[in-house]
Design a protein that fits this description.
The protein has one domain (about 25-344): Porin (Beta Barrel), CATH 2.40.160. The protein has three helices and 18 strands. The chain has helices at about 1-20, 125-130, 145; strands spanning about 20-45, 45-60, 65-75, 80-90, 95, 105-110, 115-125, 155-165, 170-180, 190-200, 205-215, 225-235, 240-245, 255-265, 270-285, 290-305, 310-320, 330-344. The N and C termini lie far apart (about 50 Å). Keywords: Cell outer membrane, Ion transport, Membrane, Porin, Signal, Transmembrane, Transmembrane beta strand, Transport.
């Protein structure tokens, strides 16, 4: 009897240890804001004003989402990991993407002394650079988002991608990503994409570079994007800067260049002001003629009610001029918002 009890105790301890080696966490955030957007279009002498009125919207600072992530200890320093994340509209309760359950992230992989390798739908290297060095965190009021709305187009995520992340060494990081093209036909080759990034962060200093090459279906030249970014935290203010250059694969060969400067200023123990200004221009590579230009200014005030709950006020002013038309067209857009974000 004593031997049976002892054996059961050992089995119970082993089962408990095995269970402790695995973990699954539910997480997410809900973000809603009351806001207003006004648009003024000027084409020659014709002016059109649009005011959509005040509305309640989802995802002011961050897109509302929920997700699951976890890991299993396989022994010898090796772990299996996974993450699935779904976006939703908090104002209506609907899915942010009707065609995908886990539209934000869906990946599984292995990690260890070699670094990590992950497979699935994942953030691109260029997006991680842009988001990581944006004072406004690519929010709906973000200057970076505004100047990229007409040009400097890039995918936030790639389907069917493999990402290798090297182990961090002395503040240095590096990653490589490849997305398989799965849309080949009898007459066109499949698209594909790959990206690289390298960075360094130590104390108040951080720098990062990223490269992206995307090939559409068929024989067209790939669109190529290069990004450089840096930040320095002075304590009383954090300065951020990024520069992104892109050349598309169309016969016209349009080149885009965008630059953004940002400041993050602590305001007391719970407050923060984020400010950013950006400029963008596009020109035809063959002729050097201008195609478009844009400027944007954004500011946000965040106040933390707790570690998980933040209230905020924000605005963005954006001007885009289309120079590739018989009559010059200018669009001015202003967005305002008051909101609350809760993380869980």
């Amino acid at each position: 009897m004593k031997k049976t009890v002892a054996a059961l105790a050992v089995l119970s301890a082993v089962a408990g240890a095995a269970h402790a080696q695995s973990s699954v966490n539910l997480y997410g955030l809900v973000d809603v804001f009351v806001g207003k957007s006004t648009v003024k279009n000027t084409t020659g002498a014709v002016v059109t004003n649009t005011d959509a009125g005040t509305s309640l919207s989802s995802g002011g600072l961050n897109g509302s989402r929920w997700g699951l992530r976890g890991s299993e200890d396989l022994g010898g320093g090796l772990k299996a990991t996974f993450q699935v994340e779904s976006g939703f509209n908090a104002d209506t309760g609907t899915s942010a993407d009707a065609g995908r359950l886990f539209n934000r992230t869906s990946k599984v992989g292995l990690s260890g002394g070699f670094g990590s390798v992950e497979f699935g739908r994942q953030y691109t290297q260029i997006f991680q650079l842009i988001d990581g060095f944006d004072a406004q965190g690519t929010s709906k009021f973000s200057t970076t988002n505004a100047i990229g709305s007409h040009s400097l187009a890039h995918s936030d995520r790639w389907d069917n991608s493999v990402v290798y992340t090297a182990p961090g060494m002395g503040g240095f990081t590096a990653a490589a990503q490849y997305a398989f093209g799965e849309n080949a036909t009898a007459t066109t080759s499949a698209g594909r994409a790959f990206g690289l990034s390298a960075g360094y962060a130590n104390g108040p200093v951080a720098v990062k570079a990223a490269y992206e090459n995307v090939k559409a279906t068929g024989p067209s030249e790939a669109a190529k994007t290069v990004g450089l970014a840096a930040s320095y935290d002075f304590g009383v203010v954090k300065l951020l800067a990024q520069l992104v250059n892109q050349k598309d694969g169309l016969a016209t060969g349009v080149k885009d260049q965008g630059a953004v400067l940002g400041l993050m200023v602590p305001m007391g123990a719970a407050g923060n002001v984020n400010v950013a200004y950006g400029r963008e221009k596009a020109e035809y590579a063959a002729t050097g003629m201008n195609a478009s230009k844009a400027t944007s200014f954004g500011v946000e005030y965040l106040y933390s009610l707790s570690k998980r709950t933040t209230v905020y006020a924000a605005l963005n002013s954006y001007k885009y001029t289309d120079l590739d038309a018989l009559v010059e067209t200018t669009t001015r857009n202003r967005v305002y918002g008051l909101g609350i974000r809760h993380k869980f």
